[in-house]
Amino acid sequence: MNMLRKYWMDLGVIVAVAVCIHLVMNWSFIPDIQGILWLSFIAILFHQFEEYRWPGYFGGLFNVVIFKSEHPERYPLNTQSAMVINLIIAYLFYLLPVLFPHVIWLGLAPILMGFFQFIWHGVFANIKAKTIYNPGLFAVLFLHIPIGAWYIYHIGAQDIATATDWTLGTIYFAVAVYILIIKGNMWMKNKESQHCFSKKHLGPYAP
User: Fold this and answer.
1) Which positions, given as ranges, span the membrane (predicted)?
2) What is the span of the domain harbouring residue 199?
3) How many domains does the chain have?
4) 3-state secondary structure 43-67
5) pTM over 0.70, yes/no
6) Tens digits of per-residue pLDDT, 27-79?
């Protein structure tokens, strides 16, 4: 578990690269909608790498800037909670639609979450930190948003999204954001946690 806790985001990049190779070699055999969802899955893996490895100081931003923590190395976010929540987001919430690409509402939810990430990283976090960049924003601007726009264009051009899809997708997205992003990182908070961020993970917010 210690190895996974330390390197889960690096393993994610290895998975992302493997998927990229698969897509390049087999794109002509993959339905367009499934290919776009694969790219969305790749986007979240690189997003997580940006947040927790390079530059990797999302933990410091979250604990110090957002929560003014007196124990920023472990509270409220720690390496255990970061790993669990992000693995669920990537390998359940983002990967499941790839396996069922024609269930449109299932695919819409992570696409909408990608757009929501701009509100979090591009607006909210930057205002709080008084910055123009924070870890995760690059992936949002150059992966999530263009891939998401492509997905929306595709389902519109193919006329395959019903009003029910949009309704269910929006509800699923909102519930997922609340559970996985807003509340998820708080459920495993523990001021006595042994799973601490390093000074690198705290970055400019290290005490």
Assistant:
1) 7-30, 102-120, 132-153, 165-182
2) 2-205
3) 1
4) HHHHHHHHHHCCCCCHHHHHHHHHC
5) yes
6) 999 999 999 999 999 999 999 999 999 999 999 999 999 999 999 999 999 99
